[in-house]
Design goal:
By secondary structure, the chain is mainly alpha-helical. 67% of the residues lie in helices and 3% in strands.
């Protein structure tokens, strides 16, 4: 497997089917057995486009496992590279828009998920100053002014203060009041009606 990781060329089986070459060297009989086991494992574990790539190597002879792994690995590396570029653009985009008060919490959660994914894919961290600037761009103007007035210095402090302001600014539901006297009056009105109905029946 190490040979595959460093090889720039696809494994090749000799015309007589006796040997398999990975890069500049031939694999051992043990590695050949591993290749066949690897193919079966990939068939069991993969699905979708990856499985299609693997199944297409079924007629490659003894090298099918190594070729399937080589092509799947290179395909995955290409996707990771594209995703790395995509997440970098998302994290560092400068045109972030202000959101409504009701969307502040979900927006900050989504932004922090982007930052975590960026760190996983690139191994780098986003500077706290940049995260603080982006937070100020996303929160409503009234909220932003309070954050700036508070003169917070870190993203964590700004987030905590911003969320506190969001909770305070959210409209509170009006309590439902029940007028007990009104219900008593309605009951008193019903009593004469019932009495009148009984009188009519007796007549």
């Amino acid at each position: 497997m190490i040979k595959l990781d460093y090889s720039e060329t696809e494994p090749v089986e000799s015309s007589d089917g006796m040997t398999i070459t990975v890069g500049d060297s031939e694999i051992t009989l043990e590695e050949e057995w591993c290749s066949d086991q690897l193919y079966n494992l990939l068939v069991q574990k993969c699905e979708g486009p990856a499985l299609d790539v693997i199944m297409n190597q079924n007629l490659k002879g003894k090298a099918r496992g190594l070729i399937a792994w080589f092509r799947t690995l290179r395909e995955a590396e290409g996707q990771v590279s594209a995703k790395r570029s995509e997440i970098t653009e998302e994290v560092y985009q400068s045109n972030r828009k202000t959101v409504a008060i009701k969307d502040v919490v979900s927006t900050l959660e989504a932004y922090e998920n982007e930052v975590r994914e960026y760190k996983i894919l690139t191994g780098n961290t986003v500077e706290d100053t940049i995260m603080l600037v982006n937070l100020k761009k996303m929160v409503p103007e009234s909220n932003r002014e309070r954050v700036e007035t508070k003169d917070v210095q870190t993203y964590a402090e700004a987030k905590e203060y911003a969320l506190k302001q969001v909770r305070n600014l959210k409209p509170k539901a009006k309590p439902i009041t029940i007028d007990l006297h009104e219900e008593e009056e309605e009951e008193e009105e019903e009593k004469p009606r019932k009495k009148t109905r009984l009188q009519e029946e007796n007549q």
